[in-house]
Specification:
Layout lengths: L1 H15 L5 H7 L5 H24 L1 H8 L3 H20 L3 H4 L4 H9 L4 H10 L2 H13 L3 H23 L1 H44 L1
């Protein structure tokens, strides 16, 4: 069970890439006090946990409602994850998650950015959602599913700590250091995406043959 926890946490952390969200978070909160940033970080992590937990638990319903097979979800999710990783590799995390200049400008005028655009789509995007839906279908035992929910909660806590420490992380690592880490994460995310595509195609061929 510990191996499953670490494996899922590593995969989800790579896809979500909270460190890559640090410059975006700071850019959207230039006038915030330390207390206001901490409050926003806390709300963002709570929304993140709720969004991903709901999509994780509703995974089977989503697949059955739209008549989507697990193989198709893996292939589509793999492509999304691969493209997300490619964007990270090119230093375009925000743009790949629909957080463009217009969204950033609107965020500066909003009273609360914790739900949108921080929790969604910046942190909990199509890549993480498709990954969790696939994990729900793969792990049929509820003990494993509750463990994955524990991973989501743990990552939410990590996100809170990272965003709360955003000014210090940016000061220590700088934008160049954070971008370098994002590029490393991008390579890992691309590999995860390719693995899901390969697994989806393999399962699809087996289903057609059987």
């Amino acid at each position: 069970m510990l191996e499953l926890f670490i494996t899922v946490l590593a995969s989800l952390f790579s896809v979500v890439n909270p460190l890559g969200a640090v410059p975006v978070f700071l850019a959207m909160t230039p006038t915030y006090s330390k207390a206001e940033r901490a409050h926003t970080a806390r709300n963002t992590s709570i929304y993140f946990i709720l969004i991903l937990t709901v999509f994780f638990l509703a995974g089977t319903l989503i697949l059955s409602f739209f008549g989507i097979s697990l193989s198709a979800m893996r292939i589509a999710g793999g492509i999304v994850i691969f493209l997300s990783g490619f964007s990270l590799l090119n230093g375009k995390m925000a743009e790949s998650r629909a957080v463009d200049k217009k969204v950033k400008h609107e965020a500066l005028e909003k009273d609360d950015i914790s739900f949108s655009p921080m929790a969604m789509p910046l942190l909990s995007g199509p890549g993480s959602i498709s990954l969790l839906i696939s994990l729900y279908a793969i792990h049929t035992e509820w003990s494993q599913r509750f463990l994955i929910i524990g991973v989501i909660i743990s990552l939410g806590v990590i996100i809170f700590l990272i965003l709360r420490s955003a000014p210090y992380l940016f000061r220590i690592m700088g934008e160049g250091g954070l971008k370098a880490l994002s590029r490393i994460m991008g390579f890992i995310v691309m590999a995860i995406g390719i693995q899901y595509i390969i697994t989806g195609i393999y399962d699809l061929i087996r289903t057609m043959q059987g």
